[in-house]
Amino acid sequence: MKSLKTLNHNLSDPAYQLHVLNNHSESLRQQPKFEEKLKDINLFPLRPTGIEIFQVNLGYMCNMTCKHCHVDAGPDRTEVMSKETLQHCLEALRHSDISTVDLTGGAPEMNPHFRWFLEEVSELGKDVIVRSNLTILTTAPKYQALPEFFAEHQVEVTCSLPFYNKSRTDRQRGEGTYDRSIKALKKLNDIGYGKEETELELNLVYNPAGAFLPGGQEGLENEFKRQLARKHDITFNNLFTITNLPISRYLNFLLESGNLDEYMDKLITSFNPAAAKGVMCRNTISVGWDGTLYDCDFNQMLEMPVEEDAPRHISEWNESELNSREIRINQHCFGCTAGAGSSCGGATT
Amino acid sequence: MSDTYYNPKDLKKFEDVGEFGPELAEKFFDYYGAVFEEGALSAREKALIALAVSHTVQCPYCIDAYTSESLEKGASEEQMMEAVHVASAIRGGSSLVHGVQMMNKTKDLSM
């Protein structure tokens, strides 16, 4: 499967995506705006609570082309963060109390400077999270050796696994994904990840494989633990439920399946003020592959950099100015405030 | 006016049934909400039971709602179809078991 960008699909244009979300149908035009919902609860303009998580998108290159990917990542994407930009990231982190560095992509492991950068971040004493698609850990020998490298640096590994069975997982992420994911999880377990007696944290990320919301995180975690233990003797620490945001390939799925209006309606009617207070953009900064700063990974994909008055590139890093910025919002933000809320760390309420 | 008895958009109007009788509707929805809370049965198990019952009472609104609910609660397609077969088995069995009554009556009437 090719990326929307390679296909020159009209949804590869972020401006067009925002136009669709706001104007595609009479129903969408009539929906309340996210800004209005925030005003109703005195949360507008939305401001940071202080940056705690420094999320780095190491590039859009990936060995997979999942149907729901909001990044439109794939083997045909060539955007990769340069060493110079990574050095700017290290410089920013060196002068900051930010505790957590969250590495994402694409497949972050495919960045040629991945190991070097992770070691440098680790030396700064930061907690490191790697967002792995699992299957990359079963490909070339250099990737197969990564679990030990992660363990050596006490990295938290947070992996995508959309479901505990093969059919639904493969439908969303491609044929063979489930078997390769299980193989990678077993390897991680074998070296101590996800085991009670170690401190090597292994978390799974659940995205609904379709036009529905994730259910209660605790209930799903119990079911995943029960099924993966029963079928494969696999253990893990936490399951994070993440709502699919109507962006890029998932937006394409919603449009092609005729589910967009109903899905947006579900997100908007499920607006939860408590979830809105805890949205991840309030304590996170997202660094794009070219060093541009964004309020979150989703705004990054919609090419909505941080507001104009704030430093907009990692080379201009100024934490206090970033902490006083106004967070940019649009209709996709309803995805993070529906139900129990959604963030890279799962439900927010 | 809709030209069919069932309109998918009517499902969202379920909560409006209190318009013609708020007190009883309120009692019903309080009860309904309590029934589906996590209890001795998990919310996922309750959603699967509701899905099965929806097929037995042949309620299109309920099938729509509890298909989504079962998916959201993490049920697999296999579990959902097994729930429908449970409903079908009981539904078919409930007809068949009355065959005993037919047989009894036949025997009563026969020489």
From TrEMBL, chain B:
Domain Carboxymuconolactone decarboxylase-like, chain residue ranges per copy: 22-102
Organism of this sequence: Fodinibius salicampi
Top-level taxon of origin: Bacteria
Name assigned to this protein: Arsenosugar biosynthesis-associated peroxidase-like protein
